Structure formats: C-alpha cells, structure tokens
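Hey L., structure's done. Input below.
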Amino acid sequence: MTNDATATPDLNDLTIAVLGGTGPQGRGLARRFAQAGLKVVLGSRTAEKGEAAAAELSAAIGVPVSGSDNRGASEAGDIVLVVVPWDGHGELLADLKPALDGKIVVDCVNPLGFDKQGAYALPVAEGSATQQAAAILTESTVVGAFHNVSAVLLEDPDVTDLGTDVLVLGDEREATDLVQALADTIPGVRGVYGGRRRNAHQVEALTANLISMNRRYKAHAGVRVTDV
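Output:
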C-alpha cells in the first residue's frame, strides 16, 4: 500500500468482523455496516450465540449477516472490530493473536469504571486500550475508533442520521484512511483522523464525560469536530 488515497482497498471487497457483536455497541455497528452493503460477521463467546444474534439481526434488517465465535470471526474478517468489555480485553486479544496477525484491528473499547458518582476513566498500564491492543497484537495494524458513538442510536432503526463524528487514531495512514471510510458508511457519521495511537487515552476517557452529559440532559451525546 501507499499513502495515495486511490490505493485504499474497496470496503465492498472486505469482510468486517465485530468481536463482541452480540452486545449493544457491537450489534449496532454490525447493523449499520450491513445496511451499508458491507459483508459482516458477528463474533461472540460461543458460535451458537454468535449465529443466533446474526440470524436475529438479519431478520430485522433484511440483509444477510454471519455469526460465529470470536475466533471464527477473527479468522473471517479483513477488518476486525474489538467491541468487548474492558475486563478480559487483554486476555482475549492474546488468545486471538494468531488469528489477527496481518489484519487491521479496530479497538473500540473504553476502559471505564462506575460508582455512585457515575462513570470515570480507568488507568491503563500501556496508556489506553488501543495501545494495549497494539502491544499484544504486534503483527496486526491497530487503529482506535468508534469509542464515542451511542449504542442506542446505532440500534434504533428510526434514526437515519446519527449526527456525529468518529475520531480515528493510528500510526499507519492507509489503515486510518480505511477506518475513516468505514465510519463514513454510517448515515450522518464522519470519520476524522484524531492523532496517533498514543493519543487514544483522551478519546477513550471522553466517553465518561459523554455518559455524564447523557444522564444530565437525557440525551445521546456525540462529538462533532469543527472547521475540518
């Protein structure tokens, strides 16, 4: 690949795998990608759960979606989204490393804690979930993205314009360009380059602020970048 935008692969030729695709965020992203005409496979802890969730989603949107366990989805995907709980994030990626070698891995995980005062960002030894993924998946190209998109809006079939930007973080220009293009397939969403992987912590932590806004204003807050 080169930095020439014309060399960016066609998303229609790629399979998008969503690990944790049976949770609200993963299921919502899978819904939107499938509706955009992309080939999507849902991953879950078990193949049975992944297949059942994929069948339910396919019936709901009238578009075929495949299901598998997380390993099968990792093997099938060209771009693999990690949309799993923070607990067990590192362990799962270490287990799936052989299946993810050579692939673009998009980490969407927010390391957050919750107490009586609300959500707050957790410290991560590597700096962020995205950096932890990169430290484990040494033969993959790791990009951080989709941290701040409302799962409620993604899953709502009546929402035809999400009205938000997705900050995309990574060190490899072709990979971040491709993930920006992936974000652009969701109606009302724009992928915006947000810096290198070392800057992912701020974007992941921002989700705690958005959760606080949503609770205060009974909203589904997102992020918009001006003058870009």
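Confidence is low (pLDDT under 50) at residues 1-6. Residues 200-217 form the longest helix (18 residues).

-- N.
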